[in-house]
Amino acid sequence: DVKVTQSSRYLVKRTGEKVFLECVQDMDHENMFWYRQDPGLGLRLIYFSYDVKMKEKGDIPEGYSVSREKKERFSLILESASTNQTSMYLCASSPVRNLNEQYFGPGTRLTVT
Amino acid sequence: GDSVTQMEGPVTLSEEAFLTINCTYTATGYPSLFWYVQYPGEGLQLLLKATKADDKGSNKGFEATYRKETTSFHLEKGSVQVSDSAVYFCALSDRGSTLGRLYFGRGTQLTVWP
């Protein structure tokens, strides 16, 4: 089974802190994604990566950065957390060969106080 | 650009009722279409998919048919169960792209009462 794991299920941080969200997949997938999920807004793409050290902005990249130093790991970084970044963060991965089907992690619920 | 519009919820049904969740799409190419489900406290998981016009995806009693003429991919189930309570997302991807990006609808919350 494909497994996508996220470092924390719940996280509480203070305004201005630097926050790291980690995602690891074990199926050698080329593509990885970070979304945030908010009530009434669905899933919004923050960043994605199609190869090691490669990244592309999604629809809402402001206030976020990413790092992909190894194929299996994709990190989302909040440089200076703000209260409007309180959200559920979902990581996903997909193989290029499989019609873009994505596999999701369980999510990290981040609260910024 | 590519986008998905799905019926807003919440949807509340009694057990064994018929379910339809509407989904329409806009795409410049020839997309693949998906329904994902998110159970409480979990990430999304693929429910079913269709890759070309007139294909029918099915899984766990759910069905959806890719209708190019109406640009739709409505989700249906003949008899829902309490365990079907979840959020359902319609999504599309551009088959011509290897970047693997999916475009999601806003999600529809389904609650089924016994």
Describe the structure.
The complex is a heterodimer of chains A (113) and B (114). Chain A is mostly beta strands and 113 residues long. Chain A has no helices and eleven strands. In chain A, strands 2, 4, 5, 6, 9, 10 and 11 form a seven-stranded mixed beta sheet that branches. Chain A has a four-stranded antiparallel beta sheet with strand order 1-3-8-7, with no helix packed on it. In chain A, β7 and β8 form a beta hairpin. Chain B is mainly beta and 114 residues long. Chain B is 0% helix and 52% strand. In chain B, β10 and β11 form a beta hairpin. Chain B starts with a strand and ends with a strand. The model of chain B has no long low-confidence stretch (mean pLDDT 92). At the A-B interface, β5, β9 and β10 of A face β5, β6 and β10 of B.
Helices and strands, with pairings:
The complex is a heterodimer of chains A (113) and B (114).
Chain A lengths: L3 E3 L3 E4 L5 E7 L5 E8 L3 E10 L2 E4 L6 E7 L2 E6 L8 E8 L8 E2 L3 E5 L1
Parallel strand pairs in A: 2-11
Antiparallel strand pairs in A: 1-3, 3-8, 4-5, 4-9, 5-6, 7-8, 9-10, 9-11
Chain B lengths: L2 E4 L4 E4 L4 E3 L1 E4 L4 E8 L5 E7 L5 E4 L2 E4 L9 E3 L8 E9 L7 E3 L3 E6 L1
Parallel strand pairs in B: 2-12
Antiparallel strand pairs in B: 1-4, 3-9, 5-6, 5-10, 7-8, 8-9, 10-11, 10-12
